[in-house]
Prior knowledge:
Elements: H1 2-7, H2 10-22, E1 36-42, E2 46-52, E3 57-58, E4 60-70, E5 81-89, E6 94-95, E7 103-104, E8 111-117, E9 126-135, E10 138-146, E11 148-149, E12 156-160, E13 166-173, E14 180-193, E15 196-199, E16 204-210, E17 223-227, E18 233-239, E19 244-252, E20 258-260, E21 274-278
Parallel strand pairs: 3-11
Antiparallel strand pairs: 1-2, 2-4, 4-8, 5-6, 5-9, 7-8, 9-10, 12-13, 13-14, 14-15, 14-18, 16-17, 16-19, 17-18, 19-20, 19-21
Amino acid sequence: MKSILKKIPLIAIFSVFITSCNSDDSTPIIETTPLVKIQELQNSNHTIELYSENGRLEQGYNAISLKIKDKQTNQLIDNASVNWLPVMHMTSMKHSCPYSEVQKTSGTSFYKGYMVFQMAQNDTEYWELTVNYTINKVEYSATDKIQVFPSAKQRVTSFSGEDKVRYIVALIEPSRPEVKTNNMTMGLFKMDDMMHFSVVNEYTIKIDPRMSSMGNHGSPNNADLTQGTDRFYHGKLSLTMTGYWKINLQVLNKENQVLKGEEVTEEHPASSLYVEIEF
């Protein structure tokens, strides 16, 4: 028997092993993900699991994924139509924030989108998230408080432009900055009312990165941000060394008029509009 086995090609043995492993159609497909669960929202029928890259929500731009799990069968739902609404409950008012539509992630049970929290929670004010969804023409909803923590550096800022419109600008990339010319992405939104925000189209975001602790020096080869097909704004950010960088901003409208922010000069070392990076 040993001599016979020695003559069987190794590839044949491997093929038999693969065939036997795949022959059982009842074997479940295990879905793995690098995302970390944030928390759960529940109603009587389903559990909604929220996920992000680091397992928490922070002031600024957040890419968020969710799963819907049937409580009776413990099965994940992959045919739902989903929307969501984040609301900040302040002591004297309520407001929402910029957020995307919720899209199904192809080939998985995840639904994904983003939210841009312009402020963090505090002892008396909190964020609440409502997830509405439809499965086989039946409507469901789940609502619960969510924790939104302050960001270590300023990644989002709101401002009133020269046109009297209220805007929000948020840093998206680089999320892991390096000493090089980084791809830079930002979101730019305007407030339509307290509960609705829309993407601003065809503006320009000028950037001027400076290291205030190093004589306020800048960097070469930066490129101002213009809008891409994904409706975000894209440019190039040159970081020549590690440390704290203030990314001075100017927002210009379609007519190339500055709505907010100032040019950095020796007499004016920083813009009133900026985001921060430290690495």
